[in-house]
Specification:
Elements: H1 4-16, E1 21-28, H2 38-53, H3 56-67, E2 71-78, H4 81-84, H5 90-107, E3 111-118, H6 125-140, E4 144-152, E5 156-158, H7 159-175, E6 187-191, E7 212-218, H8 221-234, H9 240-269, E8 272-277, H10 290-297, H11 307-325, H12 343-350, H13 356-362, E9 370-376, H14 381-398, E10 402-409, E11 417-419, E12 426-428, E13 447-448
Parallel strand pairs: 1-2, 2-3, 3-4, 4-6, 7-8, 9-10
Antiparallel strand pairs: 1-7, 4-5, 5-13, 6-10, 11-12
Helix pairs in contact: 2-5, 3-9, 5-6, 6-7, 7-14, 8-9, 8-10, 9-11
Length: 457
């Protein structure tokens, strides 16, 4: 229960500090929809998703209005299509993508995730068909999101899948070149993908999940920034240990708000409540930035020396506060550092404070990876695969989730501006050293073995 002081401070968060529930995601199991007949399969998935999700948006809006806290995004995640649609070819997968996009529009949700495959150890027929379908599926739809898991700590890195994803990303960018490669903004490549994540583009419903479940993604970088600012104003000599404690307490309050909303939505839908994802998810709005927290802590900009340590402190404090507030924490839970979606981070990259190498280093201690990173359109498939493989190695070795959401922008080079619109924001295209090299390391294929510490049985 919240005491009176916590209630007052939470109201202040809502009014002035950009506190919201960033995403309520309804996960729906589609394994009982399986059929070898494409038309039957499409009919089955439409029936099940509409049945479970027809009231999702209206209930989220009603619960949000009741508490005066906006539920910004209403989303659906589904069982991996590469599994439930395993009998189908790549062209048929594209048809399924259109059906899913139409269903998302019908129930009026923002995004539908789960056009996904799990290929960390090998690529089956359904996986191959889905990966081949990705460029057309994402270029031709608006609300569909996709994710492919190519590595785990237990299995190692499937380098054949890494190269296949690099090729799919390049093709998706080219097919959406009129929108600056926007299709790639709806595609994540993962190591150790969570099965219960509410955030797009990576959300899908894992095979160990319930038939239907509500997962909630809370946010609040603006809230954390204001809390740190107040503490420093009151005590200019405050040390980092005490600042971490303030961040932890703030994350606790934010998590309680998210769980309250999520549980009420789940109850009204008569669906099981799943987890709260604690991730601090920024927007391009001033005052709602992860990057601004770094400046409040005393750094010139995100990306300068000290940034990795600051992010480690922030990420850990958020997790500790959320874990105290809820027994059901899941998803990614930490701090996102997306380039284009965070105005301050985008400016740091444009001003030279943040390079792609430093960004990669920082992903060792945050909960995601190279997120919404625009790169030159002429980047080679081999270089792109190398970037993905590096990020997967960080996740595999450190037994954590990492991902890449990289956007090769057709016809543009490092230093050019690109705008994706809405929450996807805008950024300066980042320089990638030797972007057009065609190194043969990634083309050797095979599987990079799992690390020795994966043998924990």
């Amino acid at each position: 229960m919240l005491n009176s002081q916590e209630i007052i401070s939470t109201i202040e968060m809502v009014k002035n500090e950009h506190l919201d529930v960033r995403a309520v995601t309804l996960g729906i199991n589609l394994f009982d929809c399986v059929s070898h007949d494409l038309n039957v399969f499409k009919k089955n998935i439409r029936s099940k998703i509409v049945k479970n999700a027809s009231n999702l948006v209206s209930i989220c809006n009603a619960v949000g209005e009741k508490y005066g806290i906006a539920v910004v995004n209403k989303r659906i995640s589904i069982s991996p299509i590469a599994l439930v649609g395993a009998p189908f070819s790549a062209p048929q997968m594209v048809e399924i993508a259109h059906t899913l996009n139409d269903i998302a529009r019908e129930v009026n949700i923002d995004f539908l995730g789960g056009f996904s495959a799990l290929v960390e150890k090998g690529i089956a027929a359904g996986d191959r068909a889905l990966i081949e379908a990705l460029p057309e599926a994402l270029a031709q739809t608006q609300r569909l999101c996709a994710s492919v898991n190519v590595a785990t700590t237990r299995s190692g890195i499937n380098m054949d899948a890494v190269l296949a994803m690099a090729r799919a990303i390049k093709k998706a960018a080219e097919l959406s070149k009129s929108d600056d490669g926007l299709a790639c903004a709806k595609l994540c490549v993962f190591a150790n993908i969570p099965q219960d994540m509410p955030f797009m583009a990576g959300a899908y419903l894992g095979v160990g999940e319930a038939d239907a479940v509500i997962n909630v993604g809370v946010s609040g970088p603006g809230v954390v920034k204001k809390a740190v600012e107040r503490a420093i104003e009151q005590s200019p000599e405050i040390d980092l240990g005490k600042i971490a404690e303030i961040i932890k307490n703030t994350a606790c309050k934010v998590t309680r708000v998210g769980e309250l909303i999520g549980r009420e939505v789940a109850e009204n839908l008569n669906i099981k409540f799943g987890v709260v994802d604690l991730s601090l998810a920024p927007t391009p709005t001033v005052g709602d930035s992860i990057g601004e927290i770094f400046q409040t802590l005393g750094l010139t900009s995100i990306g300068v020396p000290g940034s990795t340590a600051a992010l480690a402190m922030l990420n850990d404090a958020v997790k500790k506060g959320g874990a105290f507030a809820s027994s059901h924490v899941g998803g990614l839970s930490g701090a996102f550092i997306p380039v284009s979606e965070d105005l301050n981070i985008a400016e740091a990259a444009a001003n030279g404070y943040l390079s792609i190498e430093k960004l990669e280093a920082m992903t060792c201690v945050c909960s995601v990876g190279l997120d919404m990173v625009p790169v030159p359109g002429d980047i080679s498939e081999e270089t792109l695969a190398g970037i993905i493989a590096d990020e997967m190695a960080i996740g595999m070795i450190n037994n954590k989730t990492t991902a890449t959401r990289i956007i090769p922008v057709p016809g543009k080079k490092a230093g050019d501006k690109v705008s994706f619109g809405g929450l996807l924001g805008e950024a300066t295209i980042m320089n990638v050293p030797h972007a057009t090299n065609k190194d043969c390391f990634v083309t050797r294929g095979g599987r990079i073995p799992a690390p020795i510490h994966s043998l924990k049985n």
